[in-house]
Amino acid sequence: MVEKKKTIYDIAREAGVSVSTVSRVLNGHSVVREQTAQKVRALIEKYGFSPSAVARNLSNKRSSLIGCILPDITNPFYSSLFSDLERWTTYHDYVLFLANTLNDFRLESKYLSIFQERQVEGVFWAGGRINEVTVNPGYVEEVQTFSEHTPIVMINGHLKGISCHSVEANEVDGVYKLVELLASEGHRNIGYLGGVRGITSYEAKIRAFKKKMKELHLPVKSSWIIPGSFDVESGILGFQGLLAAKTLPSAVLCVNDLVAIGTVAAANREGMQVPEDLSVCGFDDIPLSRHFFPDLTTVNQNYYELARSAMRMMLQLQDGKKTPPRVVVETLLSVRNSTKRNPFSS
Questions:
Q1: Which residue segment(s) compose the domain that 42 sits in?
Q2: Which of 245, 287, 289, 326 could form a disulfide with 257 if both were Cys (CB 3.0 to 4.6 A apart)?
Q3: Helix, strand or coil for residue 282?
Q4: What is the pLDDT of residues 178-236, one digit of tens each?
Q5: Domain match, 187 and 164 both
């Protein structure tokens, strides 16, 4: 078997230095301590390492590639996020390399390998294993190893047990805003539809929902909390689950806008009108939410600021600057026509 050719990342890892340090040694920079430079040169000679033009110029950012791992680009949340990330990477003269993993952790691993071969200068990561409450230790270790030579900025997620940097929308506060809105409109009986148990986004949102409901002295009924998934079908099935309960809530929060759209469609099929008979809230504020009928009351994830903050963090990490491990971006409430005052409230 032919031994795999050593990369600049292998040299950096074995020498215990950054990729930029190896690149400086290759380019003859005097800023590297002589003892460190000797160690790096010894490994270069040992492995007969011949750097590519890209590797030689990593310290000058000439590869101009940033990877972006997403689980499903057809999901409007991820396509909206990618669009704003691309806006900022282009502004800073980078090319964004999309890795659409189809919700497959093995594809995530494959793309990490491809990113290493292409010598990307950083990775944005949203969804997938970074949103799992419990993750296989091997997958965690793989990310930790990769992040030792290439900065990773996680968006709306993180991995327990490793040192990582993340930018997150304040989804908890977004849920608080929706519950408070419905309560102000006289809704006391409120349900929650969609989401997958064991996914951090769902777990955080449902905890926030229950907490705010209790703070406002509103009943939390298990028969009105129906998990499922994050797609339109989940909203349809969730609404059918509500019909099976003895009583219906006057309003529902949905884990995202796709589930809300499914809920509205299912209610219409049953002869119910939204918002006259049922107020419905979404989450994410995808483009369709403004053009659906009725247009959805929802929470905007503040994609522009999420992407801007992620890019700022990435640049700071590349420059070796001290960077806070977590940045929180505030969400925005979008009140539209899928909710209205409860006509039966006092």
A1: 8-58
A2: 289
A3: coil
A4: 999 999 999 999 999 999 999 999 999 999 999 999 999 999 999 999 999 999 999 99
A5: no
